[in-house]
Fold this protein.
Amino acid sequence: DVQLVESGGGFVQAGESLRLSCTAAGFAFNFRDYAIGWFRQAPGKEREGVSCISIRNAGGSPLRYADTVKGRFTISIDNAKNQVFLQMNNLKPEDTAVYYCAAADFCLLSANMYDYWGQGTQVTVSS
């Protein structure tokens, strides 16, 4: 079964940075064959799409960001290592959430479009 694994979360002060990583465990899972998205969920809130990237593009957008993170977050993929990264700069307290990576056929910021999910990594930003 496909298992995605996130890492890189932590506790930081406002204005600082973190880089999240997403890798695949289990059988061979090539990120080039999927769109990989990052989502987050804060306590009491719905899961929110943050960013996604699609190398294969599949006729859609290869890259998307939520308005709340544009200019601060950057998604990237390392094809050789089969990893997707989310570089988060100038973090704000409102970025505090559990961050998940997920895989889908298309790069969209709708959680219900994604078939495979990781367990999440906690990001806490203190003011």
User: Anything to note?
Assistant: The radius of gyration is 14 Å. The chain has a mean pLDDT of 92. Residues 32 and 63 are 13 Å apart (CA to CA). The chain is about 0% helix and 50% strand.
